[in-house]
Amino acid sequence: MIDTMSKGGIVVKKKEMTKLRVDGAFVSATMLILVPQEIVRYKTQDKDGYSAVVVWVDKKELKNKKKWNKIKYAKTTEFYIDDDFSQTYKVGENLDIKLLENVDTITTISNAKGKWFQWAMKRFHLKGWPKTHGSKFHRQVGSLGNRKPRRVQKWHPHAGRMWGQQITLKKIKILDKVVDNNEQIIVVKGSIPGAYNDFIKLVLE
């Protein structure tokens, strides 16, 4: 289901985690840095079936030996928008931290830190077998099911790809917004899934 009432969003990069003192208590926080991003075009309900804005993120100009410049973007994404967003921001404009004015909570969309191919012990946090002397099955899974059906049933613990899926967190509180040395920093409460320098989408609720 498409949320057509979304107010747009911006793309940031995840940086360090820290602690802030809020209401007399220390609260864990994540620092996010805004990356350069430009509005490319709009998708409309009549032509595309939904209303959205297409954004190019982190533009870089590459030069080669033929003396011409090639523009490359690290990421292309889009946000669902309402009618007010398309009237306020035009094609070719850059999105910045002003979009978060008078905004207290946001929705974050990011990818969890990938842990690659892992054995079932780590992937499913299995207890394992006895660690005492004489046991030869310390980190084994054990039985995988009954004699029938003669196949491994679905959802039994096995080795495989661990994490790396997309995670959406709603109603994340914004603790602070800082502009320093041409860097726009957004501090949000708690931890945000993702690795260092990963792209994270901040969607306005």
Tag the structure with descriptive keywords:
single chain; 205 residues; mainly beta; Elongation Factor Tu (Ef-tu), domain 3; Ribosomal protein L3, domain 3; 2 domains; 6-stranded antiparallel beta barrel; 3-stranded antiparallel β-sheet; 46% strand; elongated
Task: Report the principal-axis shape.
Answer: elongated
Helix content: under 10%
User: Strand count, sense and closure of the main sheet?
Assistant: 6 strands, antiparallel, barrel
Low-confidence stretches: none
The H-and-E topology, N to C, reads as EEEHEEHEEHEEEE
Evaluate the radius of gyration. Answer: 23 Å
User: Which structural class do you get from the secondary structure elements?
Assistant: mainly beta
Number of helices: 3
| Count of spatially separate domains | 2
Beta-strand portion reads over 45%
CATH class of the largest domain: Mainly Beta
What's the β-strand tally?
Answer: 11
Per CATH, the architecture of the largest domain is Beta Barrel
Name the average pLDDT.
88
Distance between the termini: 16 Å
User: CATH fold name of the largest domain, please?
Assistant: Elongation Factor Tu (Ef-tu), domain 3
**How are strands sequenced across the largest beta sheet?**
1-2-10-9-6-11
